[in-house]
Design goal:
By secondary structure, the protein is α+β, with helices and mostly antiparallel strands. The protein has 20 helices and eleven strands. The protein has one domain: Orthogonal Bundle (Cytochrome p450). Bound molecules: protoporphyrin IX containing FE (HEM).
Length: 408
């Protein structure tokens, strides 16, 4: 890798231009992601091919020479994303082992049993919002953030007293504008918090995912179980993967519906369902724009006459792949809940496909239907031009979303 890479903007203000660049490319695009080079892939067909190709790994410990050489360290803002030791960064048989151990925790039965908590948390939050109906409310902060954090906290059995710290610590993982010192401190804080949580659950287990994973760590003793490090990093994965992503989904769907009342009318008048809204929001504004990283295990020839060399990093660009004009035509950049083909790659593709997709979809539908039923006159309280992106190359949402909940 050398030539002039296309520099990805850590503040995400140029996301639309970056997606256009990826859409216009025939093959992968060499990018600079916070000082590291990678082949960004926003072409859905090429991306699907690479994500099912055994020559593409997610494990930097085995397949990223820069990581192996110790050149990728804690002060790189994405260090935690690539260095965690869980199924997210595992390859081949290791990934199969870890995913098999963790999958029961995501079984449909457990996810279905969470639905009453999703519904109750939604009702509680709407009650809290109703008490602020006279004010201008930041809906991201007061609703979109609150629901997933409460659901994940219930899922993991996080006690009430730890929830505020939980949220502020996790928020910092997604911020790609942090300084090296801040990134190092965030990593240390996250691990300290998770270790404390595991200690408490070991002492007093409960009916929660943390206790299920602790049992997967402690019970086997035959080398197939989770190591202590994998246990902590798997918890980190659930928190990191399941929180901000769902926040962004709710935020983007609400924004798109408020920005174009005709879309909301389609739902209210029965031409589209809340499931349609969720799928279209995932397609239109994938909650994860880019997901670092993959690594070429061997040289791989790709379209556009490029060869991805052994050891090169590959950056799946799920956002660009989801709203690609080749799949969705000239209207690809428009939010349209009635469009027939809403296919997307927002939950990934291949062996690492999102384990939490059913939960995320259920949260999205419950949150949106609840919000728009309870506050039928809800509208934006800020010009669309003032919406600022969350400063993250990875997460796609807004810093704040100011609304008025009732008619004046
Ligand atoms: C709208 C919400 C969500 C989005 C857009 C999303 C997106 C993704 C994507 C793109 C991947 C694949 C990453 C890759 O291939 O590199 C993934 C993996 C994963 N997600 Fe989600 N996710 C969401 C919600 C959740 C939730 C709620 C949970 C859990 C509570 C969760 C747990 C996971 C896990 C455990 C993996 C790793 C699977 C593996 O590596 O085998 N996700 N997610």
């Amino acid at each position: 890798m050398s030539k002039n890479p296309f520099v990805l903007d850590p503040t995400a203000r140029r996301r639309t231009e970056e997606e256009a660049e990826l859409h216009s490319a025939e093959g992968p695009v060499l990018v600079d992601i916070l000082g590291e080079q990678a082949w960004a892939v926003g072409d859905p067909e090429l991306l699907a091919r690479l994500l099912t190709d055994p020559r593409v790994s997610k494990d930097p410990r085995q397949h990223w020479p820069r990581f192996i050489a110790g050149e990728i360290v804690g002060k790189w803002p994405l260090y935690l994303q690539v260095a965690v030791d869980n199924m997210f960064t595992a390859y081949g048989p290791d990934h199969r082992r870890l995913r098999r151990l963790v999958s029961p925790a995501f079984a449909l039965r457990r996810m279905t049993s969470l639905m009453p908590s999703v519904e109750q948390n939604t009702e509680d939050l709407l009650d809290e919002l109703a008490r602020r109906a006279e004010e201008i409310v930041d809906l991201r902060d007061a609703f979109a953030v609150q629901l997933p954090i409460r659901v994940i906290s219930d899922l993991l059995g996080v006690p009430e007293a730890m929830r505020t710290r939980f949220r502020s610590t996790i928020d910092r993982i997604w911020d790609t504008t942090s300084t090296p010192e801040e990134a190092t401190a965030s990593t240390a804080d996250v691990y300290a918090m998770l270790e404390e949580h595991i200690r408490a659950k070991r002492a007093v287990p409960g009916d929660d995912l943390t206790s299920v994973l602790i049992a997967a760590r402690d019970d086997e003793g035959d080398g197939t179980a989770l190591t202590e490090r994998e246990l902590i990093d798997t918890l980190l994965l659930v928190v990191a993967a399941g929180y901000e992503t769902t926040v962004n989904l709710i935020d983007s769907a609400v924004t798109a519906l408020l920005a174009d009342p005709a879309q909301l009318a389609h739902v209210r008048e029965g031409r589209a369902t809340w499931d349609d809204v969720v799928e279209e929001a995932l397609r239109f504004a994938a909650p994860v724009s880019h997901m670092p990283m993959r690594y070429a295990v061997e040289d791989i020839e790709v379209s556009g006459g490029e060869t991805i060399r052994k050891g090169d990093a590959i950056l799946p660009s799920f956002g660009a792949a989801s709203n690609h004009p080749r799949i969705h035509g000239e209207s690809a950049a428009q939010f349209d809940v009635t469009r027939e083909n809403k296919s997307h790659m927002a939950f990934g593709h291949g062996v690492h496909y999102c384990l939490g997709a059913p939960l995320a979809r259920a949260e999205g539908v419950t949150a949106l239907s609840g919000l728009f039923d309870r506050f039928p006159h809800i509208r934006l309280a800020m010009p669309l031009t003032e919406l600022e992106p969350v400063p993250s190359i990875l997460g796609n949402g807004h810093r704040s979303l100011k609304v008025r909940l009732q008619a004046e």
